[in-house]
Design brief:
single chain; alpha/beta; Rossmann fold; seven-stranded parallel beta sheet; 7 helices
């Protein structure tokens, strides 16, 4: 990952010094990059993942920044509630925990795979919002949910269950934005295109899928997430921001 100067760092107008930011799915990929960028912007970051988040936490602390880690499964409502109870004021929440599932056609879908994708991607996002919102409503905050270009255009190569799950995440963004605005909680999403992370290894993606002719790097998504989580996006809510190299426009 490379450093990124400027607007969203602590000394800039979009800095988040003193804020508590929780990132689910923060051990790898987009989530790990987002946790690091939030920390660089001044936030104290709470990294949550079913995978041990020690490596991400260590990387953040190696830069002299603040981070804590928790091994937590987003499908476990009680575990989420218990984890978030340790952070009475949550200023930023990023829901990044997700799995891709098999790239099966609808005729070949497997019950177990479908259940896993929907449990983690949809119910996991829902339960994370449920656990975090009581810690945000009194003082307001920012929520950013990571969706996918698949949820907007019907997929690039993904299976129908993954496409459906990300479409549901986009719908949750709009529901949460409408219902939580009265508390000063702004809710937005990002819809990444194909990102060079372990999730898509072996799935058949090639750089020519989009006009830019390359896959995204995780930090390129993370920087948009951090923008949405920052004071710079103070009049944005209910928006899904496309970050897809031009694969889908409009």
């Amino acid at each position: 990952m490379t450093d990124s100067p400027g607007l969203l760092h602590p000394s800039g107008p979009g800095g988040m010094t003193g804020q508590c930011a929780v990132v689910t799915g923060g051990a790898r990929g987009i989530g790990a990059s987002t946790a690091l960028e939030l920390a660089r912007s001044g936030a104290s970051v709470v990294v949550c993942d079913v995978v041990d988040p020690t490596q991400t936490v260590a990387q953040i602390r190696a830069e002299g920044l603040s981070a804590h880690g928790h091994a937590v499964d987003v499908t476990d409502r009680s575990a989420l509630a218990e984890t978030f109870a340790g952070y009475p004021q949550i200023d930023v929440l990023v829901t990044c925990a997700a799995i891709y599932g098999e790239t099966a056609d609808i005729d070949d879908l497997d019950d177990t795979d479908v259940a896993s994708v929907l449990d983690i991607n949809v119910k996991g996002t829902l339960w994370t919002l449920q656990a975090a919102l009581p810690h945000m409503r009194e003082h307001g905050g920012r929520i950013v949910c990571v969706g996918s270009v698949a949820g907007k255009v019907g997929g690039v190569r993904a299976g129908p269950h993954y496409v459906a799950s990300k479409g549901a995440v986009h719908a949750l963004v709009k529901w949460a934005a409408k219902t939580q605005a009265q508390y000063g909680v702004l809710v937005n999403g990002v819809a990444p295109g194909v990102v060079d992370t372990p999730m898509i290894v072996g799935k058949g993606y090639t750089p020519d899928y989009c006009p830019l002719g390359r896959l995204a790097e995780p930090e390129e998504i993370a920087r948009v997430v951090v923008f949405l989580a920052s004071p710079a996006a103070s009049y944005m809510t209910g928006t899904i921001v496309d970050v897809n190299g031009g694969a889908a426009m409009g």
